[in-house]
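Q: Hi! Curious about what NAD(P)H dehydrogenase (Quinone) looks like structurally. Here's the sequence.
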Amino acid sequence: MTIVVTAASGQLGRLVVEKLLERGVAPGDVLATARDTAKLQVLADRGVRTARLDYDDVDASVLSAGDVLLLVSSSAVGQRARQHGNVVEAAKAAGVARIVYTSVTNVDSPTLVVAPEHKVTEELIEASGLPWTFLRNGWYTENYLPAFGQAAERGQVAAAAGDGRVSSVERAELAEAAAVVLSSEGHDGAAYELVGQEAWTHAELAAVFADVLGREVAYAALPADTYREVLLGAGLDEGTAGFLVAADQNILDGELARTGDDLATLLGRAPRTIAQTVPTWA
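A: Let's find out. The predicted structure is below.
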C-alpha cells in the first residue's frame, strides 16, 4: 500500500509526510506529490518517492489501485471545487482504496466564508463511491502569527471579531492526526471535527501575547468597515482584506467556536492550547 500525499510542498502536506515517517511508515511507502517536484527534494533526500500532481491537470497514472490518498485542499480560493474534482476523478479512475480529504470544521454552515467549496468537495467524494474520511480541520493557530508580530511592535491586536470565540489548533497537530488516519484502519466513513477543546476571544489572545512578550497588549475591537480600511492601508489587496474581514465576522457570529474531542482522540492526548503555543513563537 502506498500513501499518496498531495500538495506535499505546502506547509500542511509536508508536515503530514514528516509525521508519517515519525510514525514508522517506510519512506518508500509514501508518495509525496506537488505541482513543482523540485520543492519536494528535501523529502526525496529522506527516501520518500515523489511525483508531479497538478490539480489543474491531473495525470491519473500517478495514482494506483490500492493507494490511500490524502487530498490536501487547494489554496486557490474560488477554484477549489473544480480542482478537487479533477483529483477525485483521477482517484476513481485509478481505483484508490481510500481518499482522505482536509475539509473544514462547521462545513455545513451556509455563511462560513471557507465552507462552500469544502462542502461541494465532500459531496463529490461521496458521489465517487470511494471509501472516504473527512478531516474537518479547525482554524490554524498559526493564522495569528502576524498578530503576534504586531503586538510585539505596537502593543495592540486589532480585529473585527468582537467577543467571538475561536477554537484554533496547531497545524502540526492536524498533520499528526492526518498521519494517524492515513496509516491505520477503522476510519472509513468518518468525518472528524478536528478542533481544540477550548475556544478563546481576541481579548484573551491579547492577554496571552502580553504574558509572553512581557508588555501591555490591548485588543482593538473594530467595526468591519474600519478594519477593512486598516487592512487596505497596510497594503493588503481587496480580496485578501475582504476575506479576513469575513472570517472575523464569522468568528463574531460563533462560526469558529466549536470545540470537541475528535482531535484529542486521534492524537491520544489533549491538543495544545493557545497559551501553550504562543510561547514557542517568541
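A: A fun detail: The two ends are 41 Å apart (CA to CA).
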